[in-house]
Fold each of these.
Amino acid sequence: MSTKPMRIRASVKDGVTEVKALIAHEMETGQRKDANGAVIPAWFITELTATHNGKPVLVSEFGTAVSKNPYLAFRFKGGAAGDKIAISWKDNKGESRTDEAAIA
Amino acid sequence: MVIRQKYLVAALAVGLAGAPLLAAASDDLLEGINAYREALADGNPSELVAAEGEELWKTPRGPKNASLEKCDLGLGPGVVKGASAQLPRFFKDTGKVQDLETRLMTCMETLQGLDPKAVVNAGWLKGEKEKMAALVAYVVTESNGQKIKVDMRHPEMKKMYDLGKLAFYHRAGPMDFSCATCHGDQGKRIRMQELPDLRTQEGAAAGWGSWPAYRVSNGQFWTMQHRLNDCYRQQRTAEPIYGSDVTIALSVYLAATANGGKVMTPGIKR
Amino acid sequence: MKKISTLAVLLLALPGAWADQGDTYAEFKAMMDRSFKTTGIAPKHRMYQLDFQKECSQEKQPPKAVMDRIEAEQMKTIRYPADGKYFGDWKEGEKIAVSGRGLTWTDKTPYNNGGGCYNCHQMSHHEVSYGTIGPSLLEYGKVRGNSDDIVKYTWGKIYNAKAYNACSNMPRNGDAEILTEQQIKHLMAFLFDPNSPVNKK
């Protein structure tokens, strides 16, 4: 199963960097049934980490309460234009993915 | 953790406003829902679908192993920017009025050698229809912010407008509904859902201008054909065939009525 | 001379305009015929109109004489309860009012439909998610009482709204077999019972 790329945008203003990311993921809760009544297996992101030039700025645990294709926005102090922001996730099926963007 | 903090706040506001109140609460409730919509608009997942569509647009496919990069959506081969703001339109090469989806099927057939039936017969968001949705998301993103500008000069466009208007008022089925039953009056709602009055320029622009859209409630990107199909489903009529003339005629009627309004595609709906 | 020529032009123009309209409508019918298909429980023939549906498919309502005729015809379709009992259980009625399900091509059966009442009407004191296409029915029984006339009228209105307003937006719940007689009895109780949340805060 291939994963799909995230869309990441980051910009810095007055020494604070704002990161916005759209994450492509089904985020199946394991509670839903398909048209034939069979349970759709759970499939969701369990961990998500964001780094600034390799240094973690956000480490989080995800679960089934988060929607499909989650949108994530957060701010951290520091950062400069051109710095590298990387976001990685892992899901309960053992899939993982990392995407990167430069701070604008 | 900061996951969609804004959503949470907005959702909470809706919950609080909804609890013990009566008629006067409706406005608060609607305000809460509108705040929720605004919060959603910041991170429209259509972007993810559009990114897939852009890749698909450039990827060689089909028996002819060609991409869609030479597809003519009305502004010349390969021009995507602003194209969907001017659709539907009359195309000389096919001799037909086409909307975005039927035009894309023409390009898939002529450029790539793909059989349009594969799109028509696929289930919504499955197989070739899923690919179509991605292509649509890409194309309509390239018209965001433009003005709806449908060229009504061709007699075939005028004819489709007349037919679309007749379809709009056509009452049928076990519930005697037409499009106008819900979209033929000002300031009405179904449950808490506000209904645009599609007879007016303002209403048509709000409706036509904000579809195709991503629906947060089910995490799906819906094309205009999908939207119209579900309108008919809720009217309890028979099912319109994908890309059939009635869907094109209705699209012409809506787009022409909306002319001059703003394109807000891809929209985001709850 | 001028007058005569104008008249002549008018006379020539009129049949042309008529024929043109006829053409458009014939074309419309052909378009509808080739644009729809049967899916699941929703057959294609749902697109073919009943006479009154056609007469009510215009921008404006038909003339009063036509409305009167439709209403008289529709009035004849109303079947009042055979056992003379108009009221069921308001709690069942509330469930029917809340449910908007049924009769789409994704429904498995044409039975067990909801009334979809809240789509268009305000009804009870506690449900804030209601539509506004139809009038508010809040405190329906409390305001109107339960005389034989109002009870019979309400039954008829639910059974076939077109008997009272030819081009009403409201479906013919009884006549079109959307709801059963028993379901209509439950809805009647929901509207009239003093303990129903429609009437009791």
Amino acid sequence: MKFTEDHEWLKTEGDLVIVGITEHASEQLGDVVFVELPETGTEVSKGDEICVIESVKAASDILAPLDGEIVEINEELADNPGLVNEDPLGKAWFFKMKLADASALEGFMDEAAYKDFIG
Amino acid sequence: MSDLKRTPLYDLHVELGAKMVPFAGYEMPVQYPLGVMKEHLHTRAKAGLFDVSHMGQVIVPGARAAEAFEALVPVSLTGLKEGRQRYAMFTNDEGGILDDLMVANRGDHLFVVVNAACKGTDLAHMRAHLDVVEEITDRALLALQGPAAEGVLEALVPGVAAMRFMDVGIFGWNGAELWVSRSGYTGEDGYEISVPEARAVEFARALLADEAVEPIGLGARDSLRLEAGLCLYGHDIDTTTSPVEGNLAWAIQKARRKRGEREGGFPGAARILSELEDGPSRLRMGLRPEGRAPMREGVEIFASAEGGEPIGRVTSGGFGPSIEAPMAMAYLPAGTQEGTTVYGEVRGKRLPATVVPMPFRPSTYKR
């Protein structure tokens, strides 16, 4: 599993990458009450705001970690946004994307580096 | 956060694991480890303890204090019985609201509680118009709210269970003098308790020792008051909104209205009295957005799904843990009927919302 500085986790599954937010991010957000997901088939560029997470405190965005195409979204989050707090690293994945350049994953932090990053 | 003030309960908040944030010049707990959602639900199910010591506590002494105070508020205070409290607001010459407050008649003086953020200007305003105004700086203020509040407080302070909504009284607790009112800011039954600073932590611990009581932060305080349809000063009401526009006409007694015994005589009376007679042009109303996306402060409201100019703006909004849905307050044209569908523009999309009466959840005051 790889981690971004925007507190997303990335996990490879065949030629796809699954994207979610870290436990640290879900704790910072507080209780999540609404998630808006991108549409499948959307071509995204690194840094695009593609998901919205609303918690009891505020709205935050999830950014596309890399260039690619959204191929699957986690529909369950729309009905049960609380999953983001209950199981951020598992059931609360946000979307799967096909990377334009699979080797681009190399540049992200591993778990040890991410732990240092969040202090 | 070095120039921020701390309440007498600061160390207790930290010990309880609170996340502290700056609020109105104070370091205040926004949430405890339980989290906003569970703190909210706990308050509705059992009892929540809130530190509201940042709010201003003021005494206006004198047999004629009520009469003099009426020059600042559109509320009847000479008609307020001893041992009773009333909601009021300071108005300016344009009829806007300078702050909202609670005023209690305690016999030979008024006891006034004002918002933390307005404390300084409120004191200056009162001092400019009243002979003697004493700020109380050696007392903490706690709120105990929720269905279990009565039983919890009665066990420590016998007699409080007999109070009714908006009663005030002075009680003893282990040698400390408590100033108790049966009121709050959650829509729940409960109490607000002024306690000598030196005894505040001990008193808070005694309340928290009851398993029904959890400490509750500002986050849940906001969602609780929003579900109860209560205004947050600086957001839902301010110097540009009149009490009538703010849907607070209920707080203005007949005696201060046109043809009343003490008609007018407060700042902005011309505008406020005419709005009471003829209706305001806009009014604070409740909105229930469809779906789950919250409409937060600043969201513009439109009459139709496409085109047109905004007809209003959300002043407070969020997710209501007890109603399990988003809710918002907005100023809309006064003729807008309940049940009307309007559209809030959220991230460039117009989402439908229904105009509804407030509170969003029925209040459970002990009247």
Amino acid sequence: MIRKRSSSNILPNTLGELELLVLEALWQQPHLDAKMVCSRIPSHKQPSLNTVQSTLERLYKKGLVDRIKNGHAYSYFTSVSRSNLLGRLMGDVIHLLHDGRLETILSSFVNVAADLDERSLNDLEALIARKKRELGEGEGER
Amino acid sequence: MINTVGTFSAIWLVLWILLSILFVILYPLVRPRLFALHPRYGSALLLGYWTAPFLVSLLSTLFLFMPTVETLLVNTHCHSDCQSHVPLIDSAGLAWFGFSVGSIVMIFLLVQFVSTMFRSLQLRKQFNILGKAKGEYYAISSACPLVFTLGWWQPRIYVSDGLLKSCTETDLSIILQHESAHKERRDNLRLLLARLCSAILSGPLARRLMTDLQLMTEQACDFRAAEKHGHIAVAETLLKVKRLLMAKSVTVPFSSLAFAEREVETRIMALLKAGTRISPRPWQMGALGTLAVICLLLLISPLHHGSEWVITFLTDSPLHAH
């Protein structure tokens, strides 16, 4: 059960743009200090060193990066893989789609409610096959 | 000034509520007719139906307060000085009440809009950074077999690796065709518009409206994909993706979506019986639009007199002096 959240934090695994860019830099090259992370963020979005340091601190508190002391500075590396994070995000999307909180933002090909059992799916399959045969016969007669 | 704004707010809100009640009462009669239409037209008319109480109430109240329109559409009548006039609440208390309630409603709608927009942007940023652009879609490295379109004005399609691995080329083409239809039609924006315009409805009523609109929207996109690949192929792909979701246990226990029951089954049945859906001719749609405009214009005079009657009744002052 997902507890109600404020609109600004609708996804339990919500991350800001800079947090994601920092993670991206660390996925590409682990064990970087804050200065190196800063230099690996795309130039048009390059934040100050202080901002990157506080972002790394936030990610560390969220358990998404880990660090080891390396001289005077910390060396950071991710403690979650990209696919793991995406998996969590997709899980949140599925739940929010189901309870209607994403219905005006996102449309999915097939709904995620477990509203059909195996038997119903088999019946539908048989129905489609019958229609296909009918159409095939119709074309054959013509 | 406060009297004019307060009266405007009060008339608009009361009219919005009354029209919403009327449209809710009439919906069981209208629904089967809309679902008998080709989903392209059905979805447009359904959106029109549910946004109508908000739009008609707002437009007619605006017309009511425009002296030129009011002179043309309201039959001549006099109160004390026989001048052109608009209905006005004389009591400062009532005017302030109307203004306050109107402001609260407008702020509520604005907050809803902004917060949904913020949510949408935030989600999009996350998926854009974590996904990889591949032509017309973004690939997301996740085992969940999901595909969705995200955003309002410039929506983007996101497909998971889990789905890409399990689909044939034809399946993927059908799925992308369906999602591209969502993109072109700006369906997320339509749903948002419907949600905001029907904000006055709540609970099962609001859920029913959104579910019907979503279903019709999905059907419209299914039919669009079927134009290229055929109805049977689209039905097969729908079934395949549903099976994939169930096999990978991605589905959520069916509980709260009372009206969304068996959505995929309804869509497949619609595809198999595609020939029975009626496509209205352009002149029929034009006639319907014209009729709606005429009804709107004809509403102004009774609205003017009705408002004056209610104001007289509430403030106990003899506004009418015919």
Amino acid sequence: MTLTAAPPPVLQVRGPDGPWTGALAAFERTGVAVVCATQADWRPHLPTGSNLKRLLGRDFRRFRALASDELRARFVASRMLVKHLAAGPLQVRPEDLELGYGMHGRMYLRGCEQVEISLSHTRDVLLVGISSVGLIGVDTEPADRKLYGRDVERLMCTPHERSELDALELTDRNDRLLRLWTLKEAYSKALGQGLLFPFTEFGFVPQGWSAQLARADGTPVGDAQWRYWTVPVAGKFLGAIAVQNNRRSERRDTRVGTALPQRLVNSIQDSLRARAG
Amino acid sequence: MEPNETLHPAGAAALAGTDRLAAAKARVAEVDAAFGDPWHRDNPIGFTAIGAADEAGELPAEGVRRYHELGLNKEFVPAELGGRLDGLDLLGPTLRPIFRRDAALATGCALTAYMAATVVWLNGTESQRKRLADVLLRNGTATIAFQRFDHDNEFVSDEFRARRDSEGIVFSGRKLAINNAADADLLITFAAVGDNAYSVFQFDPDEAGDKLRRLPRHTTNGARGLKISGLEFADARLPMDTLVGGWGDGTAVGLRTFPLIHSSVPSMVVGIGDTALRTAARFGQEKGAYTRGVLEVPRARAALAGTFADLLIGDCLSLVATRAVQLMPDQCDVLGAVVKYVVPKLVSETMYHLSVVMGDAFHARSGHNAIFRKHVRDLATVTFGHVSSAVCQATIAPYLPVLATEKLDLAHAAPADLFRMERPLPALDPAKLAVFGGSDGLGAHLATAAAELPVAVVGGAVGQTLLRQLELLRTELDELQQACATLDGSGYAADPKAFPLTDRYALVLAAATCLGVWLNAGAGPDEFLNDPCWLVLALHRLLRRLGLPGPQLPAEVEQRVCEESLRRAAEARSYDLFGVELSG
């Protein structure tokens, strides 16, 4: 299982039935899979009533608190996508999984540390990443989103990035800004900090489809554990992926069914039964 | 009245107890002082030197020398064998100063040997215990090799195997990653003995003679100074008395050992979080968190207060679980697993959260701020990550169907002594370990403690917040019991639905330990710890992690904890229940 230098393929899934084989194969091969979906594709499949409650579990409270039908539909579609994607490598039913949220919103599968997940959405598109090799963060924005010329660069760029930006042709600056923005979001999300890590304090130097993390003055951080990529998403969107390659196993098993050392469980259950008489 | 009558027996005990606490704090201060000011550039075991050693893939030599000069191996050798181990609750805080500086140094010198030794203290014969104690007391090295797990990492991806015949034991197999394998005077190792069974052995690898092949060094992502390498045995002949415990008893040996390791290692790991927070607090004070004072910047204030609260949660959990090993052995398995499951995650989250204070310096590769990233890297390596969590969940999950029927009332609540570090502990009794199925004294404590809150506290805004938090936690505990009642506990395979429940239960017990320590002034009188602000912030963070939005916090809560966080950086006092004076 090797994380390659090339970006992971972003595979579009049309509904709960997939197709999932590409994502599962990528995950098996590299420890990372990234999928995208449109809400339009998933809307006909969204569960209702008791099926919805079963799928959302404790997330049902969050769902109920949302202000509009549109937000609720996106919420259900995104949770459904995350759980269906994770259910494959974990070999459980999607409704067996429970989502938890870190102090600053980082999504994780409660009680299942063998994988990390990340979710991003914009307009009609959802982007989800799953990793068994370490932290992961993903972000997506519409490729035509206008950032340049709105003073955004002062709020989100390091001094080095701003000087690099100024050296670009005017027509290329928006694309660069969008790329930097999504990379910063992806990395900050991977660290579980959402937008809290000040974007002017760390930067990226794009190189082809990948990128290098840099300090505020442009010096490369040079942490070999991390990889960063920019990827096209569903035609009209731009995505970024940040992955920590902390792989410590040659044959990573992510199945829930094999997570607990069975000898220990058997022995403990025997003791418990003996005590219960 | 005779003068000695003024002392009530309980008062006398309390006085003796205060001595225990005072002695423990003095020892921690002594250990910390011996390693000198870590921030001082010229300190041969300061952060600059530690960073250089890490880059070079070595342990800081001066650190190793001072470790042995202090006789720190003695801290985990039982008193009856010539060591200083007197209550598991004091071990973690005593080794914390080393973890504060360098997790690799602490693991290379202490942690691996401690894990190995625990197996033998609890399961070995007198002569095996004596042999190991002799090695450790002369500053020798003992190491441990575990069996293979399905969800593996480098340390548990392969295993040794053994068989026995009329002449003794035949030992074989290869493991690629054993810490200190090259230097070990004694190897304590699990080995497969067929039919899904394991045995444990203790021997000097050199006893294998030419049947031993030493394998090259193995490098890890974190704790790069560790001297990890492999060993390969080709049908090596070992005497029968190398067997620790009964033939095929390896799983039981492990289960007896886990509560001690699980509860005390997180206590040590709090030291890694201490340095992360101290680095950020010092940095924040120097830089004014970019422009304004740290206290004026909401996200910096939240980070410095929140991470301190998390470290206190970690210390409360460790304190209670280590004391439970001797005070409530029938409950210590689950508690130990809870602590080992929760604390490394808390400390890890803490470190990433401090990026909001550190800013650009979060990525520093040189200077003393570089220690921050080193600690981030080291933590996952020394705490074993998912593999360890899975072992912990394997201990918690089978208990959950039992939890469903537990009576969480006053009669079952944990005794006050569980939370009070000044109280001496009964002797450790290995025969009482790994019995499982004790009740849930901490859950019962949480469920009944609201009635015990001091009237003076309940009146204020912070007290009202605390009451509401306890209500929410009580409800969560009820819901947990209901959810556990629906689990399929009939077979041996864990119900997939048990996994999220192990996580929720662990967070609820974390809240119970914080409450218990606060109510009982567990680490002695202290103005900051007696105040409920840290407790309310700790419970707030645990409720958030449970997915339950708690009541809004009064502004003074975060302010008070952040101020203390900055004060402890300025005065060089530890970020734990001790608040002990440090050398820097």
